[in-house]
Specification:
The protein is α+β, with helices and mostly antiparallel strands. It folds into 3 domains: 131 residues, 2-Layer Sandwich (Beta-Lactamase); 46 residues; 149 residues, 2-Layer Sandwich (Heat Shock Protein 90). The protein contains 10 helices and 11 strands. The protein is rod-shaped, with a radius of gyration of 49 Å.
Length: 452
């Protein structure tokens, strides 16, 4: 049964709209017809019976004035004035006058005056107004007119729906072929909301595609630079251009430095690719200040080599995070701070807190970051050369920091004053501290200790 109904269901939007509107209007039409017919018939019957009662009472008074012995003659006289109505006159329960009954007598009235009883019956005039064939005819005419109106509305609505859906389908097909710049017309209805969502999606896809292309171009450039340097110095060692021991040592040092730079870039690219896959995160309660002190201990040698004083944080601050990810974030932030700080400067870590959040800040005394660069410093391969005294890094460190912070449910903020320094702050969810348990009255905690 269900399969049969499914096969009978209209397949086009236009037909479905027409069917739905038609069923609704048919139900309303039937209800209105039934209510209207019942109301009109009841009202007409009441009016006819009221008129009959007045006529019957008038006939009864006339017969009473003429005398009951002349009731039959008076009734025959009244019969001439009441048309096809049926008149029955009874005196003391005995019928003294009646005429031939007619059909469809649906309205009646009785008048009594002592022993005299006058019954007057008349066909209901409202019955002729709404006979079965008239009702069917009115219903058919109404349905035909309503059906035409419905079909016209359905054609208009269906045409608009088909045009909008066809536009969306064609645009989606164009997106699958790689044309991310397509947009569909937006309207103020439900399909307009769908079109707006589609346009936002394609705009994001287009922007992501542009970023990906730029990123690949930047990666190619970043890879080409160390590879070209390695190739050049290797060639100098091979063809004897670096003839002296000092030249050969310098070439080897450059090769090692560029190889290390290349290795760091590849490592960071691998890590970003892994982070883009939304890896699972296992969080636990960690002491952010302990993590900061561990990171300072690991990078103290790099800071001394750069002539920068590195100060660990003090105190304790508990947060919910993945220890390995926090270690990576702090290593990147401290390394960037050391690179951005000239010799004689210092980098220090300190705790910060906010409602529901625990944070650790990495501040340096470098030359800072110009304001116009701050919105872009977390983009991949974006470098602020004016904010660094020494080159280095893959340009991916802050991108990794932001991605890891997002995975941990946190964020990274930055404040910088050119010529003074910068502060990067890692914010993480703070550990929820349970309220202290109050001892219950009568518990052992309330009982005094008795020494025996």
């Amino acid at each position: 049964m269900r399969d049969a109904l499914r096969r009978l269901r209209p397949r086009s939007i236009q037909a479905r709209v027409a069917l739905a509107i038609g069923i609704a209007l048919l139900a309303v039409f039937l209800v209105v017809q039934v209510v209207f017919v019942g109301f009109v018939q009841a009202r007409a019957r009441d009016e006819v019976e009221a008129a009959l009662h007045q006529q019957a009472d008038s006939i009864a008074r006339q017969i009473e004035r003429s005398g009951l012995e002349n009731a039959a003659a008076s009734a025959r006289e009244a019969q001439r004035y009441i048309g096809d109505a049926r008149l029955v006159v009874r005196v003391s329960g005995v019928a003294v006058h009646w005429n031939v009954p007619v059909s469809d007598l649906e309205a009646s009235a009785t008048a009594r005056r002592g022993d005299l009883e006058v019954l007057l019956e008349r066909p209901d005039p409202s019955a002729g107004l709404f006979t079965d064939w008239v009702f069917v005819a009115l219903l058919a005419i109404g349905l035909v007119g309503t059906g035409g109106l419905i079909w016209g509305l359905a054609v208009g609505v269906g045409s608009r729906l088909r045009a909008s859906v066809r536009d969306l389908a064609d645009s989606a097909e164009a997106v699958t072929r790689g044309h991310l710049d397509v947009r569909v017309a937006e309207t103020d209805d439900e399909l307009g909301r769908l079109a707006q969502a589609f346009n936002r999606m394609t705009a994001r896809l287009e922007a992501a595609d542009v970023r990906q292309r730029e990123f690949l171009a930047d990666v190619a450039h970043e890879l080409r630079t160390p590879v070209t340097a390695i190739e050049g110095f290797a060639q100098a060692l091979s063809d004897g251009t670096a003839a002296t021991p000092e030249d050969r040592a310098e070439s080897a040092d450059f090769i090692r430095a560029e190889a290390a730079r290349l290795r760091e870039l590849v490592r960071d690219l691998q890590q970003l690719t892994w982070l883009d896959l939304d890896p699972p995160v296992e969080t636990a309660d960690i002491d952010l200040m302990d993590a900061g002190r561990d990171a300072v201990a690991r990078l103290a040698a790099d800071a001394r080599a750069a002539g920068v004083s590195l100060h660990p944080p003090e105190g304790h601050l508990i947060a919910r995070a993945d220890p390995a990810h926090v270690e990576t974030i702090l290593a990147n932030l401290i390394t960037n701070a050391i690179r951005a700080t000239p010799p004689g400067g210092f980098v220090h870590l300190h705790p910060v807190a906010a409602p529901g959040q625990a944070g650790i800040a990495v501040s340096d005394t470098g030359i800072g970051i110009p304001p116009e660069h701050i919105p872009y410093i977390f983009d991949r391969l974006y470098r602020v050369q004016s904010g660094r005294q020494r080159p280095g890094g893959s340009g991916l460190g802050l991108s990794i920091v932001r991605r890891l912070a997002t995975l941990l449910g946190g964020r990274v903020t930055v404040r910088s004053v050119p010529g003074t320094g910068s502060t990067f702050t890692l914010w993480l969810p703070a550990r929820a501290v349970a309220p202290p348990r109050r001892p219950r009255v009568g518990s052992t905690l309330d009982q005094p200790t008795t020494r025996g």
